[in-house]
Amino acid sequence: MNDMTDGYMTADGRKIGGVVMELKNITLKFGGVTAISDISFDIREGEIRAIIGPNGAGKSSMLNVISGFYIPTEGEVWYRGARRPQMRPYKVAQMGIARTFQNIALFDGMSVLDNIMTGRLTKMKKGLFAQAGWWFTGAAKEEDEHRAKVEKIIDFLEIQNIRKTPVGRLPYGLKKRVELARALAAEPSILLLDEPMAGMNVEEKEDMCRFILDVNDEFGTTTVLIEHDMGVVMDLSDRVVVMDYGRKIGDGPPDEVRNNQDVIDAYLGVAHD
Ligand SMILES: Nc1ncnc2c1ncn2[C@@H]1O[C@H](COP(=O)(O)OP(=O)(O)OP(=O)(O)O)[C@@H](O)[C@H]1O
Ligand SMILES: [Mg+2]
Fold it and tell me: Where would one find coiled-coil regions in this protein (predicted)?
């Protein structure tokens, strides 16, 4: 295991801490398809770690391994100094890992507020019976606390004016922001974002970039994001993993990977041996 106490300073003067998660020799197969082939990298406390690569490179699959949704065929996931055992996705959520999806996964008929509240489910201590005796058992007080947390996130992401709106009526860019809000409602220590800016116009992208940076700044949230827009990756990320055909072809600060010949070839669609 790597040293948990070391770290580095970013170009913009942020302190990045020790290793929070380490992926060791991860291979993931779906029948005959090898989505991930023997990939190792680490994620450090407080950093914004990007995963980039052409379509079908295995990026979403990797995020699913990190989130615990997929169990790798080979390899190990280490989390905060211990090997993570196989566990159900909700257990991983309780460990402080929250995510957004490449295809938005919200409840269209429910309000923005209620959608974000679902992000707190893993935090709710009182079970069904307590909810039945709502007021007497303290479930009411607990609900107030959850609401207060959620309202704070709503303010932070500047979506007060749509809090009662059914999500299905929102434009795409705002839906993505609500998804981010729901992930933040779980107060994650690692936030996973699968193409948070895909399909957005320039203005929406700028907003989303600002929020990702603000979240990192305000809560120190370690963030792993998949992104296609190289400009965004260069602006946002501290270190970048580059994937191509399930393999890792680059890993380092954005400036370094941008000048890596394998990365340039992959993006220009140069044939592989
Ligand atoms: N559940 C699955 N069952 C079978 N094959 C899968 C599954 N999920 C992904 N794959 C395959 O694994 C490979 C990697 O897919 P993945 O979705 O991880 O790529 P990606 O880098 O996220 O691509 P994109 O940029 O298009 O989102 C692809 O060949 C894909 O078809
Ligand atoms: Mg994907």
Answer: none
